[in-house]
Design a protein that fits this description.
Number of strands of chain B: 0
Largest interface: A-B, 53 and 59 residues
Number of strands of chain A: 16
Helix content of chain A: 25-40%
Oligomer: heterodimer
Structural class of chain B: mainly alpha
Structural class of chain A: alpha+beta
Strand content of chain B: under 5%
Order of helices and strands of chain B: HHHHHHHH
Number of helices of chain B: 8
Order of helices and strands of chain A: HHHEHEEEEEEEEEEEEHEEEHHHHHHH
Shape of chain A: extended
Distance between the termini of chain B: 75 Å
Radius of gyration of chain A: 26 Å
Shape of chain B: globular
Distance between the termini of chain A: 53 Å
Largest sheet of chain A: 16 strands, mixed
Mean pLDDT of chain B: 81
Helix content of chain B: 55-70%
Number of helices of chain A: 12
Strand content of chain A: 15-25%
Chain lengths: 431, 191
């Protein structure tokens, strides 16, 4: 018998109705499809080392660290030694302990050159790369820190590094020289410095954080420095500097900052600031930590790239949301692409204007012919046209989809739909 | 006429058993993976909602849960039902998110001395849902998980004990207390 199946009073009725309603909260099809696009993308990423292996690796690392510390204390107390940080705790990967790791007069038991040590070092576990963990260097110390995914930071003297809530390495003060191997397609490596996020695909660069400024100097490759929704791109040889506290009065005047007017010392200035989606390597998949995926799909409307539009939608003003998104869509990058797609989605599901939605999706794919959401846009058009009863147009779109996406996992669905549309066309002789 | 394919890799994902789906997923069949996703995405979405993942984080949460499922499929032994196993992953993730969210809120309150404005998702403006979420929000995570699995997801006590990793008696006890606290909370709201 159902609990509270026969409610005795108003309170019990409230509970029962809420529970019954909650059973229907299964999300809409578009949301599932959008999530699938990202899940499918991430599923093709190379897998990281499993948690069980980490237990053994960490145990070995713990032992090595202990031996190393002992050896250092015993033999190498000279200041200025270059040190490797190895895994120091073997807690479960999901632990979010608050601890501070201060290497002190840091030690290294490894033999051979610094380069060899660096190559042999073990990456800290997730728990050690989590928020609250701090690595500090004192006068004359330098520390190599493995950041996962093959990325390594060399922390200069009097520097401090931690991890933010999104598990991004964060340079608190001092200088960090980072070497990041080329990341798999769609994946970016992010480092936070003050209010800025530096994202890279694969490169070498320095991040400096002083009491007033943040600086980035690129040795190899290309990096992007983000603040809020704006970014600047730096190529090899470029350097950039911005105020640590850009919102303070006078900060932008004395030292132009992101996003208002970045100052670069490049001989050829980096690309102009362009509206783009702020990297959000949030809630990294359990197996992926420091190497965060490329900016995620927005949660509801054009996403975090369009907070005003999101607010408008949530407060029941989809028309305003579309208006705001259309401005974002005029820009470039992921934010513009998302906005262009989301406008159609809102027109279809919030304003219930399927024809306008089809037109907007069509505009999206014209602008972003190889966009991330291209497949979804094509599918949405096919389905919307079919629902509108525009059999011939839907069939043409379905056939085009099958030709354009021969490897799509939705191929069968579209084939079935096309068959039904053909049958309908034959039976009813519809146009 | 083109060559006919004699290969029949998989029937429609809708009709194949979970075990078969898992086997195909493990062999890298993206169609099977898509089938598994489509089969369980609504469940994960509903479960995450009931466990208090806010609407603006839900899409990311569902994504992360499925990526965790995909990465862990090779460890799925088939001792429990696939749904039970997915519930376990989802519950862990949702509770972890809740912990982080509470920490963030506490930090915000400490720093700002004021609660940030929250805007309800228009798709969830149902009075019943809003009320339910408020009542569920008052339950401790363990009791909430059990109540949600039993009352919303329709799992048996045995299945819930597999998901949350506690004896069946504990499940019944938590459920009893959760129900009682829910009704009390509802009475307070009504009065």
């Amino acid at each position: 018998m159902t609990w509270l199946g026969e409610p005795q009073d108003e309170a019990e009725r409230l509970v029962r109705e809420g529970l019954d309603r909650a059973k229907q909260r299964v999300g809409d099809e578009v949301t599932h499809r959008r999530v699938w696009a990202k899940v499918a993308e991430a599923s093709t990423m190379p897998e990281r080392v499993s948690g069980r292996r980490w237990i053994w690796v960490s145990a070995a690392a713990t032992a090595a660290a202990a031996v190393g510390l002992f050896a250092y204390v015993r033999y190498y107390q000279a200041p200025g030694a270059s040190v490797d940080i190895v895994s120091v705790a073997a807690g479960p990967a999901t632990t979010e302990s608050e601890k501070s790791e201060d290497p002190g007069p840091a030690a290294s038991a490894s033999s051979g050159s610094a380069q060899e040590r660096q190559e042999n070092q073990l990456a800290p576990q997730e728990s050690e790369r989590g928020p609250g963990n701090v690595i500090r260097t004192r006068q004359g110390e330098r520390v190599h820190v493995s950041l996962g995914g093959g990325a390594v930071a060399e922390l200069d003297e009097n520097s401090a590094m931690t991890w933010d809530a999104q598990h991004r390495p964060t340079i608190q003060r001092g200088i960090a020289r980072l070497a990041v191997p080329h990341q798999p397609p769609g994946w970016r490596f992010s480092v936070t410095a003050g209010p800025y996020v530096v994202t890279v695909v694969g490169t070498k660069f320095d991040v400096r954080v002083s009491s007033r400024t943040v600086g980035v100097e690129v040795t190899e490759g290309v990096v992007e420095v983000w603040r809020n929704s704006r970014a600047t791109r730096l190529a090899a040889g470029d350097s950039w500097q911005g105020p640590l506290h850009p919102d303070e009065p006078g900060a932008s005047a004395s030292s132009p900052s992101v996003p208002s007017s970045p100052s670069t010392t490049s001989s050829s200035p980096p690309a102009a600031w362009s509206p783009a989606e702020r990297p959000q390597p949030v809630a990294a998949p359990t197996a992926v930590l420091a190497t965060a995926p490329a900016p995620k799909q927005p949660a509801s409307v054009g996403g975090r790239s369009s907070p005003e539009a999101e607010t408008a939608l949530r407060t029941g003003d989809p028309a305003k949301a579309i208006d705001l998104l259309s401005k974002t869509a005029q820009g470039t990058g992921a934010a513009a692409e998302n906005a262009a797609y989301e406008m159609a989605r809102i027109a279809r599901y919030q304003l219930h204007r399927p024809r306008q939605a089809v037109a907007l999706w069509d505009r999206y794919r014209t602008r972003f012919p190889t966009g991330l959401l291209r497949t979804e846009a094509d599918l949405s058009i096919v389905e919307t046209l079919a629902q509108l009863g525009e059999v011939r147009a839907a069939l043409a779109e379905a056939d085009a989809f099958l030709a354009r996406h021969p490897q799509s996992e939705r191929r069968r669905d579209v084939q079935r739909l096309a068959e039904r549309l053909r049958a309908a066309q034959a039976i009813y002789d519809v146009k | 006429m083109g060559p006919k394919s004699t290969r029949n890799p998989l029937p429609s994902p809708a009709v194949i058993a979970d075990a078969e789906l898992v086997r195909a997923c493990r062999s890298g069949d993206m169609l099977a993976w898509r089938g598994l996703y489509e089969r369980y995405a609504p469940l994960v979405h509903r479960f995450a909602s009931a466990l208090g993942v806010p609407s603006d984080e839900r899409e990311d949460a569902v994504q992360d849960i499925f990526i965790a499922v995909y990465r862990s499929l090779k460890h799925f032994r088939g001792d429990a039902q696939l749904s039970t196993w997915i519930y376990r992953i989802a519950a862990r993730h949702a509770i972890r998110l809740g912990r982080r969210r509470r920490a963030r809120e506490a930090m915000r309150l400490t720093m700002l001395k004021e609660k940030p404005a929250t805007i309800a998702d228009p798709s969830e403006r149902s009075t019943q849902l809003a009320t339910l979420d408020r009542m569920l929000g008052k339950l401790p995570p363990k009791k909430r998980t059990v109540l949600v699995l039993f009352e919303i997801e329709g799992l048996s006590a045995k299945e819930i004990s597999d998901v949350v990793g506690c004896p069946e008696n504990t499940v019944w006890s938590r459920l009893h207390h959760a129900r009682s606290e829910m009704v009390k909370a509802a009475r307070r709201m009504v009065s």
